[in-house]
Design a protein that fits this description.
Elements: H1 2-29, H2 31-39, H3 44-54, E1 60-64, E2 69-70, E3 76-77, E4 82-86, H4 87-90, H5 125-142, E5 147-148, E6 153-154, E7 163-165, E8 168-169
Antiparallel strand pairs: 1-4, 2-3, 5-8, 6-7
Helix pairs in contact: 1-3, 1-5, 3-5
Length: 171
């Protein structure tokens, strides 16, 4: 029961809050992409996908090997091995993404794994995407002159990426 409560708090609040703040931070750091989104509001869906790729709220995943796993180099991870995955690293893999360090709100294809994939896909992924499109789209339309307004502070966490403070001005 406690684990389910922790899961619901993290999945339903922490990641959505971080998605929005990380998106705003990315727009502030990339004024050309901010202007592009203002000029082309129909890019909101692909913009949210790019923000998820570049600043995924969840940075690290954990799994327990259910069976022996042979890696491409021949090494074997025995059943029961605790595995740490780098979602952030995978989302910047140059073998998957052209110029992975560049923010491009129209990036196609964008096969990021911010919500993981397969049987472990985030159950709230669709809701998070809808929330991101609506909230960020409205924010950008309502406050087109959004600017940084003071020093920003990242949360001091490895697993989650977000802001503990991101002051902005809307005028």
């Amino acid at each position: 029961m406690i684990q389910n409560c922790i899961f619901l708090l993290n999945a339903g609040h922490e990641t959505t809050t971080s998605l929005m703040a990380n998106s705003v931070g990315t727009l502030l750091d990339n004024p050309d992409q901010h202007q592009r989104l203002l000029d082309e509001p129909e890019l909101i869906a692909s913009a949210v996908e790019e923000f998820l790729r570049v600043e995924s709220p969840l940075q690290i995943g954990n799994r327990l090997a259910g069976e022996d796993i042979t890696l491409s180099g021949g090494e074997v991870l025995p059943k029961g091995t605790y595995i740490h995955t780098s979602i952030a690293g995978a989302n910047r893999d140059p073998a998957v993404f052209d110029d992975p360090g560049r923010v491009d709100i129209a990036r196609k294809p964008n096969r990021h794994i911010a919500f993981i994939t397969g049987i472990h896909v985030c159950l709230g992924a669709t809701l998070a995407r809808v929330e991101g499109r609506i909230a960020l789209g409205r924010l950008v339309r309502r406050f087109p002159r959004l600017r940084a307004n003071g020093p920003a502070q990242r949360m001091p966490l490895a697993r989650f990426r977000g802001w503990s403070s991101l002051p902005v001005s809307v005028r």
